[in-house]
Recover the amino acids of this structure.
C-alpha cells in the first residue's frame, strides 16, 4: 500500500458560488479518500497571503488573493494512501484547458483564475497548509468501516 498521507483541499469561492461543493466532495469520497476535517469559511487576506506565499511577486498574485478571499470556501483535509498525488490527479492540471478529461478542472472549469479547487502539491506543503488552516484543531482521527474494501 502507498504511504498513508493527509492533504489540504480548498473548494474555492467559484465552486461554492456555482453550487459545486457536493460534486467536488463526492469525487474525492468516491475515489476512497477519507475526509478528516472540514470547515466553511471566508479566507482572510492574511491567511491567503501565507497560503500562497510562494506566489508573492508574481503578476497574478493580487488577483489570486482577491479571488480566494472573495467569498466563502470549504477547507478540508483528506487522508489515504498516496493522498497528496491522488488528490492532485483528481483535481487536474492548473490550467483547466490543459487538464486531463475526467478531472475536476477539465470537466467543470475553463480559466486558470477560476479553477475551483486547491490541493497541496507535496508532503511539505501538506504539513504546512494543514497546520495553517487546522493548527488549532479540527482534524479528526477515526476508523471508517468500509476501509477494508478500499485499502489493501
Ligand atoms: N498564470 C496564472 N494566471 C492567473 N492565475 C494563476 C496563474 N498561475 C496560477 N494561478 C492561480 O494561482 C493558483 C496557484 O498556482 P499553482 O501554481 O500553485 O497551481 P496549482 O498548484 O495547480 O493550484 P493550487 O495551488 O490552487 O492547487 C492556481 O490554482 C491559479 O488559481
Ligand atoms: Mg499550488
Amino acid at each position: 500500500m502507498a504511504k498513508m498521507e493527509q492533504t489540504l483541499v480548498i473548494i474555492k469561492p467559484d465552486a461554492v458560488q456555482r453550487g459545486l461543493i457536493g460534486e467536488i466532495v463526492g469525487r474525492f469520497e468516491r475515489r476512497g479518500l477519507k475526509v478528516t476535517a472540514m470547515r466553511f469559511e471566508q479566507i482572510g487576506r492574511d491567511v491567503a497571503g501565507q497560503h500562497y506565499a510562494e506566489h508573492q511577486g508574481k503578476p497574478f498574485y493580487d488577483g489570486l488573493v482577491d479571488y480566494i478571499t472573495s467569498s466563502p470556501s470549504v477547507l478540508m483535509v483528506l487522508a489515504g494512501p498516496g493522498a497528496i498525488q491522488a488528490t492532485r490527479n483528481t483535481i487536474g492540471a492548473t490550467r483547466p484547458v490543459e487538464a486531463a478529461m475526467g478531472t475536476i478542472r477539465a470537466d467543470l472549469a475553463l480559466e486558470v483564475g477560476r479553477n475551483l479547487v486547491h490541493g497541496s502539491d507535496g508532503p511539505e506543503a501538506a504539513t504546512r497548509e494543514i497546520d495553517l488552516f487546522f493548527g488549532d484543531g479540527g482534524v479528526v482521527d477515526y476508523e471508517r468501516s468500509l476501509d477494508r474494501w478500499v485499502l489493501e
About this structure: The longest strand covers residues 73-81.
